[in-house]
Amino acid sequence: MRILIKGLEDERFHRPLQLIANLFFEECEIAFNPLDQNDLVIDFTVSVSETINVSGVLTDSKGRIEFAAYEKALIPAASDKEYFKQVKHAVAHVYLTVLQDWTGMTQKWGILTGIRPTKLLHRQMQKQTPTAAAHQQLKDEYLITDEKIQLMQQIVDRQLTVVPDLYELQNEVSIYIGIPFCPTKCAYCTFPAYAINGRQGSVDSFLGGLHYEMQKMGEWLKENNVKITTVYYGGGTPTSISAEEMDMLYEEMYESFPDVENIREITVEAGRPDTITPEKLEVLKKWKIDRISINPQSYTQETLKAIGRHHTVEETIDKFHLARSMGMNNINMDLIIGLPGEGVSEFANSLQETEKLMPESLTVHTLSFKRASEMTRNKEKYKVADRVEIEKMMNMAEEWTKEHNYTPYYLYRQKNILGNLENVGYALPNQDSIYNIMIMEEQQTIIGLGCGAASKFIHPQTGKITHFANPKDPKTYNDSFEKYTEDKLKILNELFDKEESLA
Ligand code: SF4
Fold it and tell me: Distance from the CA of 294 to the center of ligand 1, in angstroms?
């Protein structure tokens, strides 16, 4: 599909228009200069005075025409960037409308292509906008459907029940710790994860660096009297290191971090069941780790084999029971919709198996369609469900969780994929993960330690976000962790000093 865009000179339109086009067409190229052959031409007229007026005419190669127009009051803004944002929204509104009319498809999330839709509603709630007005705005300005607005409201309400002081946690931080090793690498993995076998040297050096980061960060937090809200060990698979190494790591956490007893939640991803042993569960219990994740992804054996997860369905179930019997009472499980070879019947099987275990929370991911397509291209034996079937499976998850008393408590969307899908975390009453809420809603700083760990520094007053990423591969990390720690401490000093001087 080739779309020629006319009437928009500013290059800043390119990316947002491409992202919206990607919601409709799997392979799509948009151009701002005439091409030899275009499937669609969309001609915009934009005028900005006290109002922003945008109209667009879509013409296809057969001469079919769609037309849309949108008018919106221009809100005075402090910067050119903010002005442009308003114009961009108006253009996106018209663009989405003509594409929806032409394709007959409805984008349930409207013009939103970002990954955190619930943030929009939180922003309105913080401003104390009446609910009906906030919903109307989501519908009129962003073209979000009622179904998704209801979901957003349900999630936002749930989050504020779980974390009533969500809007007041900007002076605390959460910590993410990245352990970049796994027993083997899964076929669809995009995380920093290295097969652990034969890498003991690299693991030792990495852990040395991580202990250093934890000590330095802990010192800073203590000196500056900054509390920790949650800690999350992810990766990779944090349980792929040995029980002794885990023990030393958690001991370090207790020694270095401030007031660990009062951290609201500590999670360790034990994602791969093949890494879970009674010894490791003992260590988790010893250090009062509240929450673990055991991720089946699917309960169909061929699928697990096809995606390179070297464990069996039985192993997932056995390890779940083992963890339960050893006192783990907050277990999350992840399922993935759209794995190669999987359709409605495989997913129904996964839900049936889940029913036998009833984990405290269930996160339902949708495999990125594009990535899945790549997998299909690379290995012909993989078949990936189409968009309609994927939606069916998402609806099954929604119904199943509702019937079994789970509530959606966080969601994020994947960028740049066909089908405009979302990932949703569901939890039984009072079992929602606070860290997941913190990472999604961006109300406080998250400090990333370890390999591939992304830090997100959020200014306590302005909410301005500064991203900072640790290196992804262990070798670079081992060579430079001191420098990365220093850089993060510098950012933290600036962030929290400013706050003191303004107070
Ligand atoms: S277990 Fe997770 S992090 Fe590890 S290779 Fe598989 S998808 Fe990647």
Answer: 12
DSSP category for residue 109? T
- List, for residues 257-288, the tens digit of each pLDDT value: 999 999 999 999 998 899 999 999 999 999 99
Q: Ligand 1: distance of its center to the CA of 191 in Å?
A: 7
Domain with CATH 3.30.160.150 in the chain: 2-105
**With the C-alpha atoms ordered 158, 162, 164, 167, is the resulting torsion angle positive or negative?**
negative
CB atoms within 10 A of CB 88: 19
**pTM (two decimals):** 0.91
**pLDDT > 90: what percent of the chain?**
77
The Å distance, Cα 216 to ligand 1 centre, comes to 28
Digit-coded pLDDT (tens) for 182-193: 988 887 787 888
DSSP string computed for 411-470:
EEE-TT-TT--EEEEEESTT---HHHHHHHHT-SEEEEEETTPEEEEE-TTT--EEEEE-
In this prediction, residue 376 carries a pLDDT of 46
Q: What is the rounded CA–CA span in Å between residue 481 and residue 449?
A: 9
Residue 402 Cα to chain centre, angstroms: 22
Residue nearest ligand 1's atom 7 by CA: 189
Strands 291-293 and 331-337: parallel
Distance from the alpha carbon of residue 183 to the mean position of ligand 1, in angstroms: 9
d(CA 237, ligand 1 centre) in Å: 7
Cα of 492 to ligand 1 centre, how many Å?
A: 30
Interval 36-93: pLDDT, tens = 788 999 999 999 999 999 999 999 999 999 999 999 999 988 789 999 999 999 999 9
Torsion over CA: 152, 153, 156, 159 (sign):
negative
SS3 73: strand
**What pLDDT, in 10s, does the model give residues 94-126?**
999 999 999 999 999 999 988 899 999 999 999
Residue 271 CA, closest ligand 1 atom number: 1
Q: Does domain 2-105 have CATH number 2.30.40.10?
A: no
Cβ–ligand 1 distance for 189 under 6 Å, the answer yes
> Distance between CA atoms of 256 and 44, rounded to whole angstroms?
58
Which of 184, 191, 197, 375 best tests ligand 1's pocket when mutated (most atoms within 8 Å of CB)? 191
Asked if residues 456 and 446 have their Cβ atoms less than 8 Å apart, the reply is yes
At 74, the amino acid letter reads L
Q: Residue 236 CA: which ligand 1 atom is closest?
A: 3
